[in-house]
Amino acid sequence: MKKDERHQLLRKLVQKDVITKQEDFVDKLHERGIEVTQATISRDIKELQLVKAPAQNGGYRYNLPPEMDYDVSQKLSRLMKDAFVSIDTQREFVLIRTLPGNAFALASLIEAAKYKEMFGCVSGDDTVLVISRDEESAKRLQKKIISFI
User: Fold this and answer.
1) Mean pLDDT of the region 3-30
2) Which residue stretches, if any, does this entry annotate as coiled coil (predicted)?
């Protein structure tokens, strides 16, 4: 399993289950047939910036940090409805124009979504340039982004 996939699974586990210690993560992944060590989980926790917060049962549990505890899709949808101007593709490039001052936030959300079609993303004040892995990926990504409007 790739690190990005494991990180996504860990985020879901934290939201769904009460995870009180690193070994809980290891056990949950082993139940799914994913071999992982406690040292790997420790690094993942740091990279994901998971925090321990009081649990309802009186102990502590892992949680997502406040800024990560949101639905990227909902924020993308809201921003696209409020600030979208146009979108176009050329080969592996997707160019998105927004109202002035909105491109940085849009680029940040697109990066947070971690689309597999995306190689990288740069933005200015009113323009986001998404570099896709290939021409077909650019077309798929354009459709995904348009779906938020």
Assistant:
1) 93
2) none
